[in-house]
Design goal:
single chain, 465 residues, two-stranded antiparallel sheet, 3% strand
């Protein structure tokens, strides 16, 4: 069945049909989906699920059992099994209710006929620059690289581009494309009334304005926020507020500032480990802290902590690798080349955050540690001032301790270390007149004394060792 897609390019609505039976087959695009849907469950990467010791997800396994004989579909057991009408031999088995269509059978036959070439999983193939097609005709304004691909497809289907869109339609399309929002009346009037230059100049002004708007960053960021499982609440039990909007704003700024992708990934993966890391780079690492959390009384902190480790594996596999890696948590992946061992190796990599697993039931608005203070400029100035006051008082306290220590040591040498105050009403009355009586001293925790004689401190140190 042909697919029908509308592309908005160069102001034209272009109907694009996929050619059937004429395109060069690509394993990842045309063949892998068929095998994954109908064959890999029993003949894939999961050794425990594999039937007949036949593996079809790797070329070596498919060729070793002559399931696939490159260039000879009639000699390939795979083709024989999918074409036979014998219910005992046909694959997939009738009881699976997973039947191949005639188009899928034809694709598999053409694939084997053309040499049965395999490709690595698409997530592991580095992007490669391809040659831009040269269409026979090049309409005015269709001079971009993308236009070459579109025009070539149109020519192969005997089609021509639609005419250019009028100004109102163009502004609406480009505004939706870059911001996800419709243009306002003021924007529409300004564009329609712009006759200061050429049409291309007027459109360039609109594009520059949209690219410089916060809405542009918000529009592009929303897909990344979905991939990163962003939410404003914890998602479990009382579903308290999860205050991670500074990370959301960092993502929006990154798109608005056109931050290079490698820096975008590095900041979110290890921004806090970079030499001299900035506050923004530390904020970016919240990507790995966006898991659902609970504060229910019966929650086991360790269980939920490990659940957050698994969440990090899933999120990184999806967002950065394009893989459903979480399928390998309990068994080897049935469709992608990820083993259960590799899953837990990756989990060990992400199991290095000092977190509790649950957030406080008694202080639900507190941010689960580890966390980062994010004061504004005035608050930052106040914090610096308070820190200076604290350091000043601490220095004064230390100086006072050094000043009175000789007198303290002298008194201890002369009178011994006092013990706890004697109990009773009489001693309480004596205490009012400075005549309190003390029991003999017994050793106790050092924290009970403001000052400790050096001899006692040395004795405790030796006892501890």
């Amino acid at each position: 069945m042909s697919s029908f897609v509308f592309l908005m390019l160069g102001g034209a609505a272009v109907p694009l049909f996929a050619a059937e039976g004429t395109k060069v087959l690509q394993y990842n695009r045309d063949v892998r989906p068929i095998l994954a849907d109908h064959c890999f469950n029993c003949h894939g990467a999961d050794e425990r699920q594999r039937k007949g010791k036949l593996r079809l997800d790797e070329r070596e396994g498919a060729l070793s059992g002559k399931a696939v004989v490159p260039g000879h579909p009639e000699a390939s057991e795979l083709i024989k099994r999918i074409l036979t009408e014998d219910p005992e031999e046909v694959m997939p088995p009738p009881k699976s209710h997973n039947t191949l269509t005639e188009a899928e059978k034809a694709t598999l036959r053409r694939w084997i006929e053309s040499g049965a070439e395999y490709q690595k999983h698409w997530a592991f193939i580095p992007p490669q620059k391809v040659e831009v097609p040269a269409p026979k005709t090049l309409p005015s304004g269709w001079d971009g690289a993308v236009d070459g691909f579109v025009l070539k497809q149109l020519e192969e289907h005997g089609m021509t581009p639609a005419g250019p869109a009028n100004r109102e339609a163009w502004l609406r399309r480009v505004t939706f494309a870059l911001t996800g929002l419709p243009p306002g009346i003021k924007e529409m009037d300004a564009f329609l009334g712009d006759i200061s230059g050429t049409e291309a100049d007027a459109r360039a002004k609109v594009v520059d304005r949209l690219l410089g708007s916060r809405s542009y960053g918000e529009h592009l960021a929303k897909d990344w926020l979905d991939a990163a499982r962003y939410a404003d609440s914890y998602g479990r039990h009382e579903d308290g507020d999860m205050l991670v909007w500074p990370w959301r704003d960092w993502v929006i700024r990154s798109f608005n500032n056109n931050l290079p992708y490698d820096q975008f990934v590095l900041a979110q993966t290890a921004g806090d480990l970079l030499p001299g890391s900035t506050r923004d780079q530390k904020v970016a690492t919240a990507f790995n802290r966006l898991a659902q959390q609970s504060n229910e009384s019966g929650s086991d902190p360790e269980e939920f902590r490990l659940d957050q480790v698994s969440d990090r594996v899933r999120a990184n596999g999806l967002a950065f690798m394009g893989l459903t890696i979480e399928c390998a948590k309990c068994h080897d992946h049935k469709y992608d080349p990820i083993s259960q061992r590799e899953y837990w190796q990756m989990a060990a990599f992400f199991d290095n955050i000092d977190e509790n697993g649950v957030y406080s039931q008694f202080c639900p608005k507190a941010t689960p540690s580890p966390s980062l203070l994010l004061p504004d400029a005035s608050q930052e100035e106040k914090l610096v001032e308070l820190q200076h006051q604290i350091e000043t008082r601490e220095h004064a306290l230390e100086a006072m301790r050094k000043e009175v220590r000789p007198a303290f040591e002298k008194r201890i040498a002369e009178e011994g270390i006092p013990g706890a105050s004697k109990s009773g009403l009489v001693n309480s009355i004596k205490a009012l007149f400075g005549q309190r009586e003390f029991n003999p001293w017994t050793q106790r925790a050092k924290a009970h004394f403001d000052f400790e004689p050096e001899s006692v401190a040395r004795q405790d140190a030796i006892g501890c060792c």
